[in-house]
Amino acid sequence: MPYFNIVAETTESTVITEYEPVPRRSDSYQSEAELEKEFIRLLVEQGYTYLNIHKEADLIANLRERLEELNNIKFTDSEWEQFFTTAIANPNDKIEDKTQTIQEDYVKVLKREDGTSKNIRLIDKKNVHNNRLQVLNQYENGKAEGAKYNNRYDVTVLVNGLPLVHIELKRRGVPIREAFNQIERYQRDSFWAGCGLFEYVQIFVISNGTLTKYYSNTTRINTIKDAVSGKTKKSKTSNSFEFTSYWADANNKVIPDIVDFAKTFFAKHTLLNIITRYCIFTSEKMLMVMRPYQITATERILNRIEIAHNYKKYGNVAGGGFIWHTTGSGKTLTSFKTARLASQLDFVDKVLFVVDRKDLDYQTMKEYDRFEKGAANSNTSTAILKKQLENPNAKIIITTIQKLANFIKRNQQHDVYNKEIVIIFDECHRSQFGDMHTDIIKHFKKYYLFGFTGTPIFAKNAGARKNAQLMTTEQAFGDKLHTYTIVD
């Protein structure tokens, strides 16, 4: 029996529900040049504008035009010069600073000639379709002073004139690893050359036509132990091939061929959502890009919250659900992004992230803090939990099952019970959950209840446990919203 009779639902999920690959694989574009041409044709077909430029001066002129268009402004030459050299191509900015600009500080202040100030957005994160997507190829970035080689890059996607996605192609039959190694060379030799605009790239895509993968542009910290002294030292390293990911549909079916990848990952709303919503710039200055199953789970929960709010289905299992993601698949990252985006919904008062005492909320707090310093509030006592629940600025609260149970026992009546609260349980299969579930549904009137688990309880294994009265995960939370198991 469905909970909702939905008349219209958005088709703009970031991850396509089910993708049927293009049946016929063309063998006519085996060469790298033909593969590149076909790839660009697919992007243009989807609404990208092809830009026939190959030099930095033209790239900068185009950037100026796109930012004028996005911000409905005309820069004078001196305004543009000052804005470009301080806000965009500041010689003191490293890759981490440029990543922070795109992910967090994308609104810059322009000092106008008449003395006034104006905010200039480099990217529109609220209305992603206001951003202009362009594609260029064979861009030369090697003749700039100090560059080692005369490099020509395969394909680059510009968002409002800034190169944010770079694609390196090899012909079919060549190992995909060679495309990865090529990007490593560019990072060493020339992305920083000239005005360093290619250091703004957020996502790399590598393909040999048959296999296609993506990964974030980040610097990772390696800890190396000295064999003689026994001391550990940290060294910066660029990406590792291990961190490259395949794209997939919502059923976890991998989409490896460049033709299918272009039609799904590079669909305009998908690419823009990944850049603006599903990248995380951590407190350690690392850029992480979410995997398709993480994005799907996050969007299924957000979608369920919005529909349940519209249909007034909060306060029961119709307004909730559970995510079955195997251990080690990055549940903390998924739950963090879900909590973060849910807390930004206008009608949601708070997001409670509930863990078991065994998983000490301090650990979860440290994880959340890694993703974004101070984004979540953790509590050391029930009294502090009460204060946080009463503080309108504490939007995401991490607490243990035990503290939440104590709060409910001590506060049979409280204003928070009438507010719209999203409650996310980590490892929701734990047996202590039974009593907690009863307390929540008895007191909270407008809850949206979600669980993440690696081992859900189904009817067939509930009775086999010591407590035969144990609820199944579905009885406690509602529908299974997404699955990503060890098989996947």
Percent range for β-strand residues: 15-25%
Give the beta-strand count.
Answer: 19
Radius of gyration: 25 Å
What overall geometry do the principal axes of the alpha carbons give? globular
The unreliable regions are: 221-225
Q: CATH class of the largest domain, please?
A: Alpha Beta
- Looking at the structure, the CATH topology of the largest domain is tt1808, chain A
Query: What is the structural class?
Result: alpha/beta
What is the total domain count? 2
CATH architecture of the largest domain: Alpha-Beta Complex
Strand order of the largest sheet: 15-16-14-17-18-13-19
How many helical stretches?
Answer: 15
- Helix fraction, binned, reads 25-40%
C-alpha termini separation: 28 Å
Roughly what is the average pLDDT, rounded to an integer? 87
Largest sheet: 7 strands, parallel
